[in-house]
């Protein structure tokens, strides 16, 4: 995957990409350095001037392009910027709204990291808005066993609504507006499932991201074949998530 991204970066010299490593197995960060070095992506990785770096301390997109360090790599758990400075600790730079939401109202409240001071969150942190609606499925019912556990799966039947670009309950545009009011600025990242589905047409998630940036989305959507998750970004750089979901970067 990283080698594919390097090839893409070489062909697109004016684009900036964010990689979010979901380290759900809590692997020690040093285990990631060999594939990063071997892939050739190391030379593109941005290293911040401060640890952590507040949202108003980031360079412009233009500066990152001119310097050649136009890949920003985050890790959610077990990052250590003292030993590996080019893998940034996600939760000292951004917070997330409720993860794997099952509530179609999509609250904009901070969930991770826990106990974050609201003023610090507003003044210093970027934030990622989780907008991938899930349904809890009873594992016991699926297997015929006695398990009381449930499995969260994407609510596929509601995708067109969830990824919608209109200000109506459950739609991405409504969440963008709600979060903007609550935090006095749009989300920096919009996390969605199946970005090629939406309302009023495929590409609606990019329309929402474009509005957050004060520009117009006028491209043809959306890649080739079925997609299982998506990105959107705002004014500082664009996003790619190494995870089940593809994240859309917005701005700061």
Describe the structure.
InterPro entries: PI-PLC_domain, PLC-like_Pdiesterase_TIM-brl. Pfam families: PI-PLC_X. This protein is an alpha/beta fold. The chain folds into two domains: 1-92, no CATH class; 96-227, no CATH class. It contains eight helices and eleven strands. It has helices at 2-11, 33-39, 61-67, 118-124, 139-143, 159-162, 172-183, 204-212; strands at 17-21, 71-75, 88-89, 94-96, 126-130, 134-138, 150-154, 189-192, 232-233, 238-242, 246-249. The strands form three sheets. It has a five-stranded mixed β-sheet with strand order 4-5-8-11-9. Strands 3-2-1-10 form a four-stranded parallel β-sheet, with no helix packed on it. The radius of gyration is 18 Å and the shape is globular.
How are the secondary structure elements laid out?
Elements: H1 2-11, E1 17-21, H2 33-39, H3 61-67, E2 71-75, E3 88-89, E4 94-96, H4 118-124, E5 126-130, E6 134-138, H5 139-143, E7 150-154, H6 159-162, H7 172-183, E8 189-192, H8 204-212, E9 232-233, E10 238-242, E11 246-249
Helical stretch count?
8
The protein's oligomeric status is single chain
What is the first-to-last residue Cα distance? 28 Å
Helical coverage, percent range: 10-25%
Instruction: Report the biggest beta sheet as strand number plus sense, adding barrel if it closes.
Output: 5 strands, mixed
Largest sheet, spatial ordering of strands: 4-5-8-11-9
Estimated radius of gyration = 18 Å
Strand percent estimate: 15-25%
The total domain count is 2
> SSE order, as H and E?
HEHHEEEHEEHEHHEHEEE
| CA-based shape | globular
InterPro entries: PI-PLC_domain, PLC-like_Pdiesterase_TIM-brl
Pfam family, one: PI-PLC_X
């Amino acid at each position: 995957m990283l080698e594919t991204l390097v090839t893409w970066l070489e062909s697109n010299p004016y684009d900036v990409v964010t990689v979010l490593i979901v380290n759900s197995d809590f692997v020690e960060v040093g285990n990631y350095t060999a594939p990063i070095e071997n892939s050739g992506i190391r030379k593109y990785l941005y290293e911040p001037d401060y640890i952590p770096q507040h949202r108003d301390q980031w360079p412009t997109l233009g500066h990152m392009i001119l310097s050649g360090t136009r890949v920003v790599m985050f890790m959610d758990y077990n990052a250590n910027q003292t030993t590996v400075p080019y893998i940034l600790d996600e939760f000292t730079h951004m917070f997330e709204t409720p993860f794997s939401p099952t509530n179609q109202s999509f609250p904009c409240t901070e969930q991770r990291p826990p106990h974050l001071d609201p003023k610090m969150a507003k003044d210093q942190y970027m934030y990622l808005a989780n907008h991938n609606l899930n349904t809890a499925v009873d594992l016991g019912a699926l297997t015929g066993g006695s398990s009381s556990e449930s499995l969260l799966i994407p609510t596929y039947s509601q995708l067109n609504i969830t990824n919608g670009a209109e200000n109506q309950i459950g739609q991405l545009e409504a969440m963008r507006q709600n979060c903007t009011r609550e935090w006095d600025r749009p989300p920096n990242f919009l996390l969605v499932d199946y970005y090629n589905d939406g309302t009023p047409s495929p590409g609606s998630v990019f329309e929402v991201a474009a509005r957050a940036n004060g520009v117009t989305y006028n491209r043809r959507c959306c890649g080739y074949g079925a997609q299982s998750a998506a990105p959107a970004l705002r004014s500082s750089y664009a996003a790619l998530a190494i995870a089940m979901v593809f994240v859309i970067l917005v701005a700061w």
